[in-house]
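Supplementary notes for students who missed Thursday's class. We covered one full example, reproduced here. Read the sequence, then the structure, then the short commentary at the end.
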Amino acid sequence: MLLNNLLDALNLFSHSGQVPSLSKKLPNLKTALRKYILPNLPNYSFSAGDLEREKLEFCLEEVTVESFLLANPLKILSESCQALVSQGLLARHVERTTYRPALLQFQTWLLEQQQKEEEKSNNNGKYAPKTRYQKNIKKANQGRANYQKTQYALKESELTPQLCQELANLHLFCCGEYVPARQDQKMREKTFQNHRQRVLGVLGWLKNIQGETLDVLEIKKLADVRVIEQYISWGINTRGNTCGWAMGICDLALNIAKWQFCHESKRPQYRDIPIIEEIRMINNRLAKRYEEQKQAAKRSKRTEKEMTFAQCQEIVLYLRRCCAPKDSYGSPRSEMALARAWQRYLLVAILTYCPVRQRELREFELGRTLHRNRDGYCVSLQPEDNKTGDERCFMLSDLLPPIVVADLDQWIDVWLPKFRIATENLDNWLGFIGRREYKNQMELEQYLSHLQQQKEEILKAGNTEKAAQLEKRYQSGLRNYETQVQARRNFRENFLFVSTGSNIFETFGLPIKAGDLFSIVRSSVYTASAALAEQEHPLFKGIEPRKTNPHYFRNIAITHERRYGDPTKRKAFHKVLGNSEKIGDKDYNEMYPEEKTVDAKNWWQSETGSDSFKALTKIKKLLPSLTSRELIHLKQLLEQNLSLLV
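Structure (token representation):
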């Protein structure tokens, strides 16, 4: 149904099944529209008399859905209510608990209806939206330092037998169940793997930057204060790393020093080992500087990454449309292209509604950390599966919208088996990746034979440059034999998400790496937000494309929860995320300073002395003496007069 105006939209919403028959949301929505939004709607001039009772419908009929959404009704509601709160005419909690939930649900529903209408006009969702615009993440990042191009870390293959033995000894000291001279608790395996990567970084710097040879490298050198300070100085000044990175190097040096000198220590926390105390002093200096850097980075990056929860929802809807079987020009898409689209969509959807840490998302493993039972999907994380080392368990299905849960079913039941089938033989593999020149092994052999003949003829003609180009295409085609075998060897069917590799598919089937997940999510959000802005979507009109990374979805979720959430659910919400409420406020809450101080008005006045508080206190004392019938009447009375509740 085409929604011509706000009256049509409200009537359809009331019969859509979105609002239970006994719910107060629909009356609250109408009150919010009549009292707070329509009188302040841009380009309209409704008076209080115009909006009374039956006259409200005539006003609603004048307002188009597009103008309503473009006006940002949530912002109008907030500003109107806050003005009344400051005058003492409205209780400060009424907006959040009464009007905002109803308006937010209505706005979300309106956006979904617009999406459905767009899909209907787009051949019922058979065609994916246009995804290529003038703006893309690569162009946006041009001119920024890219240190990935100059890797300096020592490769695993370069480790000498001596270095391998030292690493093994360090691992035993840090992670062994019982080490007599060790004063600390044993290290988690994941933490040691992070230290191992740092070891390779410092060793690589000594070899590739400082010019030392492999035969003189020792891990024990990494506890030398001079070496550590030189490496940290180079990393910060030359590579542009933060003090947070440097603190990780100090932590590595600290553990190596403990391993090296633990037998000499007679005092708790190795306080009698001078080199350990020196490293701690360096770390303390870096920690102070890192706090300053974090605040500065937070302010500068916020403008690039910040989104409202409603914008995140629209990103998810857009990425869902990108899973259509044909592209915007009507050409069929390969199964590989569709699989990548589905994975991008589900990754962003889960981060939007359940922003767990990126490592937890990457390591969702069917039958171990992710279970599918009769009630839906359950996430169960053991201490070794998460950063904080605690045990967590929650129903993922309760946090995701039903459509995302259904799409997750399709991903597991349809697409993951397709990955396995695709890697079984070369014909399946070539059909899956969808090369234009060949679809199966026979066509590939014919293609290679044709290239070989062309190359020989061109060489006879003396055109070596053209022959080199043909040889490159020949080797690319020949590589398909190798990549199919590699993909079959790599594929881990038990992981929920797997790498789909680049154009040569060298990592297809492996678990997704942290850097790859970062790139997938950020580029997906950037492309989607650019497309929605290009289409002049009400929530993205005039906004630069977003560069939101996986971890920033936690900021978005916690900020939204602080603004509009139910405080009684906050503890459980943070248990799902895997951090405390205190950390949520300190590191993730992006509310503006003025939002955090709204409740300071009349701070010297105690609500405990107000008439409403005294009345509620008396009611509570009477409750035990009331009969069940009297309690029902009291409940009805309170529901009819909301002012008693606040």
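Commentary. Residues 145-149 have pLDDT under 50 and may be disordered. The radius of gyration is 30 Å. If anything here is unclear, bring it to office hours.
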